[in-house]
Every structure is written in C-alpha cells, then in structure tokens.
Amino acid sequence: MKTELFTSIFLLVGAAFIFIAGLGIVRFPDLFTRMHAVSKASTLGLGCILVGVAIAFPSAIVIAKSLVVLLFIFLTAPVVAHMIGRAAYLLKVPFWKGTVADELKDRYSKDRKTLRS
Amino acid sequence: MNAVLTIVFVLLVAALLLAFLRLVRGPSLPDRVVALDLISVIIAGMIAAYVVWMRQPVLLDAVTVLAVISFFGTVAFARYLEKRTTDED
Question: Are A16 and A42 spatial neighbours (Cβ–Cβ below 8 Å)?
C-alpha cells in the first residue's frame, strides 16, 4: 500500500517535470534558454520516474538496473548539453535580444576551436 | 494506480507533442537536435511508466539501451554540427 503511494508520487512528479521541459522547449525565446530548460528538467523528471520504478518492485535486480540508468543519465546529460551548446555557439546561433553577457566573445580561436582564457 | 498512470501518460504525451512542435518549427539545426534529445528522454520515461503499469521489469533493459543510443546519437549530431563550422570558415 505504502509502496504504491510512493511510486505514484514519484511517477507524477517525474512526468510533471518532463512536461515542464516540454513547455520550456516551446516557450523559451532562444536556443540556450531552451537547452537550460530541457537538460535540467528532463534529467530530473526521468530520474524521478526511475526512482518510482525502483520503489515499485521489491527485487534487487530491478533496483540495480534503475540506478544504473539513473547514474548514466546524470553523467551524460551535462556532456550532451555542453556539446550542443558549444556547437551552437560556434555556429553563431542568434541570442535572445535581452541577453546581457557573452563571456566567450572573442575567446574562441577560429582555427583550432580552443578556448583562450 | 491506474488513474495515476493515466495522468502520467497524458503528461508525457503532451510533452511529446510540445517537443515535436519544436522539432518541426525550430529555427536552427541545434534546436532540432535538442528537441530530438528531449523526445528520446520522453520515450524512455514512457517505457519506464509502462514497466510499472504492466508489471514487466524486463522492459527496463529497453530503457537502458534507449538512454545509451540517444546519448551517442546526440553526441554524433553535435560533432557533425561542429565539423560544419570548420568547413564554412
């Protein structure tokens, strides 16, 4: 009974976070704010759903598998966000007009794509 | 439990529609890559919710495989986008 309650709560919270990620990808004004919404909210949402799955089944193998997927997602989501953001910055995707700071300006050397600090 | 899972699936399908909207509209190519990444996360969440619904823990393997494939796919897209910038310069 109690496991069912906790599973429901985690599944609902996770689905709500993923829905918020979907809302963010449509409503935000430029690529970088959209990425900020998607990579954080979808990671947390899928994490919550996987915790719900781990609670729902009282067996070690299911818990282990859920935790492996969770760890993998928590490791790879920042890598993916960084790579897309870097590629988009090098492609000169336009910023939102309210952007106040671009700290990378003139710091990428053009030929080697390395950052000069 | 069934009512909860219905709500969960409705939310996930709504998120899928929103991500698809961005995939169709997205002004730049990285926008579409981000939308594809979100779609794969949503589908992984759907499979995970289906695991609870059908009481079939075997399907968790599908979530694992989907997470790995979406990671490599997105990294490949990002590499390709970066390569495109070198060609243009």
Answer: no
